[in-house]
Amino acid sequence: MSQTDLPQIQSFIRSQGFEDRLGGGSVDSTRASLDSSSSDSVSDSQILQIQESKWNLPPKGAVDTSRAAIQEADIGNIRVGFGSSGKNVGFVKASGTRFTLDGKPYFCAGTNAYYMSRIDFLSAQEMIYQMMKHSELQGNVLRVFFAYDFSSSGTQPQLGVYNEDALRRIDLVMAAAANFGIRIIAVLGNYWPFVGGMQAYVDEWGKKVGRGSGQPLELFYTEPEIRGYYKKWVNTIITRTNTVTGLPYKDDPTILAW
């Protein structure tokens, strides 16, 4: 994706009723982005259904809360140590063109569940239930976005400022994954500006230094201050100690890849 693609992408997102994904918002902002001649006939619940279907979110209200509650209690008691967290024992390694675990081939079966870490998308029990169902389907890997930046509920509401509530959700995701024997591909950055990607870093920095938003995406790679903010974020996660398990992330085999 080039810098010139961004306006077209953002325009498409607005046309689909996802203004809230570009800069934070709610049902009201989604309603406002719909055609004014039809928005009065669209209910809030219908708008939420549109949002969830467009972003492939799991259905609301489909959680067996009793099973999720039992699992939540178990998650808080998993056994951990260096290279061991719940059912995840030993680090998955790259060996030539394949993954290995304890010297044996390791095969991945999983999906992109970017939303697992989002406190504004899923409750803790909804997240745990989704994790449990993934395990029951014999999935052993999930790709999860750790970075949701520059919104009030995101991991980094402002450059260099972190949201402990959002980080604690990531802690719970890690503990739940360990409980079910699932490995995590942790996404620490991305291209998409509406979830706090590289362009958002550049835009936030541009506003901070008085240059405004819309500066070239390439500054993410070349501007020392922007690079510093991203390095600080990466270091924050790698050196963080999980508040649920007490295990530092760098010692946790639940991380399959960064």
Keywords:
globular; TIM Barrel; three-stranded antiparallel beta sheet; disordered N terminus; 10 strands; 2 domains; alpha/beta; 258 residues
Query: How many DSSP-defined strands?
Result: 10
Tell me the number of helical segments per DSSP (H or I, 4 or more residues long): 10
The structure class reads: alpha/beta
Quote the average pLDDT: 81
Radius of gyration: 20 Å
> What name is given to the CATH topology of the largest domain?
TIM Barrel
How do the SSEs run, as a string of H and E?
A: HHHHHEEEEEEEHEHEHHHE
Question: Concise description?
Answer:
This protein is α/β, with parallel strands linked by helices and 258 residues long.
What does this structure look like?
This protein is of the alpha/beta class and 258 residues long. The chain has 2 domains: 1-55, no CATH class; 62-257, Glycosidases (TIM Barrel, Alpha-Beta Barrel). Helix content is 40%, strand content 12%. It has helices at residues 6-15, 19-23, 27-33, 44-54, 65-75, 124-136, 164-180, 198-208, 219-222, 224-238; strands at 80-81, 84-85, 88-89, 93-95, 98-101, 104-106, 110-112, 141-145, 183-187, 255-257. The strands form 3 sheets. The chain has a 4-stranded parallel beta sheet with strand order 7-8-9-10, covered by helices on one side. A hairpin with a 2-residue loop joins β1 and β2 (84-85). The longest helix has 17 residues, at 164-180. It is globular, with a radius of gyration of 20 Å. The model is unreliable at 1-6, 20-30 and 34-39 (pLDDT under 50).
